[in-house]
Predict the 3D structure of the following.
Amino acid sequence: MRVYISVDMEGIAGISHGKPTNRDDSGYRDACRLMEGETNAAIEGAYDGGADEVVVNDSHGSMYNLAPDRVDQRARLVQGRKTLSMVEAAADGHFDVALFVGYHARAGHPRGTIAHTYSGAPTLTTLNGKPVGEYGINGIYLGALGIPVGMVSGDDALAEEVADWMPWAERVVVKRGLGWQAADSLHPSAAQALVKAGAKRAVERARSADAGGLRPLVLAAPIAVELQLTHGGQADFAALIPGFTRVGDRGARFEAQGGIEAYRAFVSAVRMARLADE
Ligand SMILES: [Zn+2]
């Protein structure tokens, strides 16, 4: 049983404001400690549930947040400026199940804490017209590889979105979103206990008959990937990518033939959009 864990920071218990999630902030190291706590809880839960192998992908910001010597020694750690970002190395391992820890609601969510989608550039992203966040963008990539998402942890706004997109996934709520940079959070220890239990249940389900009802997230092709960006200049740059079209005041659109292509189109557009502001 091989388990892939992608860990973000904004959805970790005790993180209520965006500032400490930035490397330059004086609170950043403390935020990393909280992230490491939930990461280790997920690893422990995965092994308790029957995992034989766990790979952790550090999936926040510049993606080298977790101190390697503070991460449970049973797990391997993927870090750095990865081409495939939050799903790097998922294609390498024939993973049976994926766990998303510290995730958050989509950009544009009215209440989710530090709600965004990959960067500050997209204000709304849709797949086949339906608003989606990182859980779904990453979910369709993994889904195309046959890997179901078994657990997602973060705030209650995220849980509502995940219930809609991937109703089979265990939903662990570690805080209540009170707005853009505010949350009502459990104590980190209490949150870690929930993450551990959720990870254990997800892996136990993945091991059981019919994968315990866990399903890879697969959308029928073609998949329309549309990003509304912060301004038209960002959309112009994103629409420069072959296959994209420019839509509306500040949108760019692509029709993908599957989940992997949809993921690559989205990440490419986000990266191109950033260049418009340099
Ligand atoms: Zn994120």
Summary: Helices lie at 28-48, 134-144, 156-165, 188-207, 232-238, 259-275. Residues 204 and 210 are 12 Å apart (CA to CA).
